[in-house]
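Ops channel
N.P.: pipeline sanity check, posting one input/output pair.
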């Protein structure tokens, strides 16, 4: 069940700072300063108004209150973690205000709302549940959201289960698709309607990832379904996406977590074995060790070879070895396959050996920045017996984030776009709130239950 529903003392017994006392105090101080800025409506509005003017991509700077990635729902989730870190400081009330804004925005909409985790019903439900203090609050709201989400999840799963292949990644990925939806359903499956929806999601993913002899895997992306024109030109015959945010590692992580938590479905274990084996076989060796590309291009005849992948990946949560390694580790943990776990550890060690400029994650943020890498390293530091390098790596990443702290910016941290443009992002996924969450996870005794939605735990 949901980790946020556990008593705070039970959580703290399983989680402790990776930093020494002095380092933890320094990191915690900065993180709480950022949190105070986010709770300051004036500073928050300043950032929201500045971002579209600063960005090279103003069309994606749209603030959607009910969204988790870039909306008030994400700030409600942020406050839920602060409410455990500082239970007597009123963060539940601050979070309530953000949640109210998110729900009001949802109610004002006409028509169907997407079910996805980062811009839809699953994310809003996750925020409300996380803020509910173990399910003692927002019961009516959660029931309403989950009933609506279950309907949408069943529809999405049915559509995916009928798909012959070559669709868009948004059907199954973490950000918008079945993997992210399932991340929420998994921890609330004690409700029958939620359990039924979860089963449908997992059955659809089992179908999507089943062996498809003589053809590409059904989860391949055709050129017509690529996210943008430059990507379509780069992959004229389609590709096999290997990013945790948008590719097959997301479904693998969900299926592994479900199996680990006792979900039993025909073909689930075989699906985990098949996908994890595919990912393990798709490794490449770079100058610093094990790596994975962003995607594997398909050839005109539908075949593929990882050697054809020439696009070097960043080392982030969304794309690159850290996210891929975490999904592979979860698969190994679920099925007791030590070789997958060892390969995952090797890959993350290779990331930490890379000089900082070669990691290609200049931004301090969660999605494609330093905080996302830190969140993954923290999980490996807790879960793997060979944790020494990861504890040191987490300490170094925290120092890197402290150096990026910019008190002259409204929220203290900013997003860095390609080309170096600094944007005062207020959203959880690409802004200051995500940085503060990762720092607090490193510096406090509060387990980061929020990283379930990123399919890290």
């Amino acid at each position: 069940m949901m980790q946020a529903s556990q008593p705070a003392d039970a959580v703290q017994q399983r989680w402790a700072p990776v930093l020494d006392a002095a380092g933890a105090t320094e990191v915690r101080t900065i993180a709480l300063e950022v949190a105070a800025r986010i709770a300051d409506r004036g500073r928050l509005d300043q950032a929201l108004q500045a971002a579209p003017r600063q960005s090279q991509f103003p069309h994606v700077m749209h603030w959607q209150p009910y969204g988790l990635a870039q909306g008030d729902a994400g700030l409600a989730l942020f406050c839920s973690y602060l409410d455990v870190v500082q239970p007597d400081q009123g963060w539940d009330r601050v979070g309530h205000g953000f949640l109210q804004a998110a729900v009001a925005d949802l109610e004002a909409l006409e028509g169907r709302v997407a079910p996805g985790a980062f811009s839809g019903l699953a994310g809003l439900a996750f925020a409300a549940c996380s803020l509910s203090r173990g399910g003692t609050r927002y019961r009516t709201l959660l029931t309403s959201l989950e009933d609506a989400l279950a309907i949408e999840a069943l529809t999405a799963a049915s559509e995916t289960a009928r798909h012959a292949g070559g669709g868009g990644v948004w059907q199954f990925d973490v950000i918008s698709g079945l993997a992210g939806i399932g991340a929420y359903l998994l921890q609330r499956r004690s409700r029958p309607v939620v359990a039924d929806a979860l089963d449908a999601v997992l059955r659809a993913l089992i179908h999507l990832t089943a062996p498809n002899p003589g053809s590409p895997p059904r989860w391949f992306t055709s050129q017509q379904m690529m996210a943008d024109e430059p990507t379509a030109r780069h992959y004229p015959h389609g590709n096999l996406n290997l990013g945790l945010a948008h590719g097959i590692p997301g479904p693998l992580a969900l299926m592994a977590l479900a199996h680990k938590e006792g979900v039993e479905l025909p073909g689930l274990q075989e699906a985990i074995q098949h996908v994890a084996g595919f990912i393990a076989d798709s490794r490449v060796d770079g100058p610093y060790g094990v790596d994975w590309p962003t995607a594997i291009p398909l050839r005109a005849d539908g075949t593929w070879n990882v050697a054809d992948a020439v696009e070097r990946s960043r080392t982030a949560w969304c794309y690159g070895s850290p996210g891929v390694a975490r999904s592979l580790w979860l698969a190994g943990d679920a099925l007791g396959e030590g070789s997958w776990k060892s390969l995952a550890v090797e890959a993350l060690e290779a990331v930490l050996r890379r000089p900082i400029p070669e990691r290609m994650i200049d931004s301090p943020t969660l999605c494609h920045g330093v905080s996302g890498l830190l969140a993954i390293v923290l999980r490996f530091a807790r879960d793997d017996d060979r944790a020494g390098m990861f504890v040191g790596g987490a300490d170094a990443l925290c120092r890197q984030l402290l150096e990026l702290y910019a008190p002259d910016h409204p929220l203290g941290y900013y997003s860095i776009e390609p080309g170096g443009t600094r944007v005062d992002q207020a959203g959880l996924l690409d802004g200051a709130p995500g940085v503060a969450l990762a720092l607090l996870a490193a510096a406090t005794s509060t387990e980061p239950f929020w990283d379930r939605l990123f399919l890290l735990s």
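N.P.: looks fine end to end. The mean pLDDT is 94.
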